[in-house]
């Protein structure tokens, strides 16, 4: 990492320095692990205690932060410390050299169309009639199937498999081991015989600026498309079934499972291990707590918890009652004995 002064960082973030504006950093660290020469940030109040003992040279803080004790580090005050730190890391990432060139050990079908400044690493495979946009990176052992389209600036990490006919937008990131376009789970029962497989003839569409976590699977549609709209962020180990649609800028944590043909609105937030039944509709700006089990439609702007999922307020009340069940049972038992006597 290059070396920067507090003054230079503050200028980039349009922040204000409190302390030594000439102090330099060349690395980043969590505030509780800060060392001389590192940059950190404080946005969560739970970590406030660490700012008074951190060895980090510079700490980015919210502009309303007022230290109760002396702070050794130089402070850079900004409106949103978390967002500012994210901006710095993005700038650092963008400053890294971008790989280019096609490795001699890769396999690109002669009918594929490959744009400019593309990187294709060792043992990567690009199938027939695939279209690869400019500045795309396809890392080692990735597979891009026949008739796949990949937009400019997209990064396909090692071991990703993209099945035939799928469409990947611009500036998409797909992390290692993800599978895009495997068959949806479609089988028709036949009495006394094996299940009959229903051919899955659709595809998957990932729109621009989508990010897919490692080992996440997005199934192709039975007919039509499984669609992940612009700006969606999916964590590792998520299952998206056939014909699902996820709305713009929705985010999901690890191990979410979505059954077939469910439609999810924009700007939703799902915690880890949320499960959704098939053929339901989830509105815009819905929030689901970790391990929520959603079996029916949810309207816009709702927050749900529990399994089966109910409104946040009702679930909190139910949890309060549940914690007191032993005492309630004893009281009920005592009343029963008094009545019987």
UniProtKB/TrEMBL annotation:
Pathway: Bacterial outer membrane biogenesis; LPS lipid A biosynthesis
Coiled-coil stretches noted in the UniProt entry, renumbered to this chain: none
CDD domains: LbH_LpxD
Any one GO BP annotation for this protein: lipid A biosynthetic process
Catalytic activity: a UDP-3-O-[(3R)-3-hydroxyacyl]-alpha-D-glucosamine + a (3R)-hydroxyacyl-[ACP] = a UDP-2-N,3-O-bis[(3R)-3-hydroxyacyl]-alpha-D-glucosamine + holo-[ACP] + H(+)
Occurrences of domain UDP-3-O-[3-hydroxymyristoyl] glucosamine N-acyltransferase non-repeat region (ranges): 22-90
Record keywords: Acyltransferase, Lipid A biosynthesis, Lipid biosynthesis, Lipid metabolism, Repeat, Transferase
Pfam family, one: LpxD
E.C. number: 2.3.1.191
Acyltransferase found in the keyword field: yes
HAMAP family found in the cross-reference section: LpxD
Family statement drawn from the similarity comment of this UniProt entry: Belongs to the transferase hexapeptide repeat family. LpxD subfamily.
Name of protein: UDP-3-O-acylglucosamine N-acyltransferase
Originating organism: Salinivirga cyanobacteriivorans
């Amino acid at each position: 990492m290059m070396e920067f002064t507090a003054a230079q960082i503050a200028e980039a973030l349009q922040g204000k320095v409190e302390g030594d504006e000439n102090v330099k950093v060349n690395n980043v660290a969590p505030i509780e692990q800060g060392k001389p020469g590192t940059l950190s940030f404080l946005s969560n109040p739970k970590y406030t205690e660490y700012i008074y003992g951190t060895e980090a040279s510079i700490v980015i803080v919210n502009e309303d932060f007022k230290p109760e004790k002396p702070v050794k580090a130089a402070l850079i005050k900004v409106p949103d410390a978390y967002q500012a730190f994210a901006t710095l890391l993005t700038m650092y990432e963008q400053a890294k050299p971008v790989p280019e060139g096609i490795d001699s050990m890769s396999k690109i079908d002669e009918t594929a169309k490959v744009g400019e400044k593309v990187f294709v690493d060792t043992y990567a495979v690009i199938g027939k009639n695939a279209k690869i946009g400019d500045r795309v990176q396809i890392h080692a052992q990735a597979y891009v199937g026949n008739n796949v389209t990949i937009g400019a600036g997209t990064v396909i990490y090692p071991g990703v498999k993209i099945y035939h006919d799928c469409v990947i937008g611009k500036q998409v990131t797909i992390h290692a081991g993800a599978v895009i376009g495997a068959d949806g789970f479609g089988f028709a029962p036949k009495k006394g015989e094996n299940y009959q497989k229903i051919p899955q003839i659709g595809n998957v569409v990932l729109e621009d600026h989508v990010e897919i976590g490692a080992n996440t699977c997005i199934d192709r549609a039975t007919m039509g498309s499984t669609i992940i709209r612009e700006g969606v962020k999916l964590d590792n180990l998520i299952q998206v079934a056939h014909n699902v649609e996820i709305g713009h800028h929705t985010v999901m944590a690890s191990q979410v499972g979505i059954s077939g043909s469910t439609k999810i609105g924009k700007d939703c937030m799902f915690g880890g291990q949320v499960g959704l039944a098939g053929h339901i509709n989830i509105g815009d700006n819905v929030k689901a707590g970790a391990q929520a089990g959603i079996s029916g439609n949810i309207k816009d702007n709702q927050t749900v918890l529990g399994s089966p999922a109910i409104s946040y307020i009702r679930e909190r009340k139910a949890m309060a009652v549940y914690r007191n069940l032993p005492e309630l049972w004893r009281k009920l038992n005592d009343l029963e004995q008094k009545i019987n006597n």
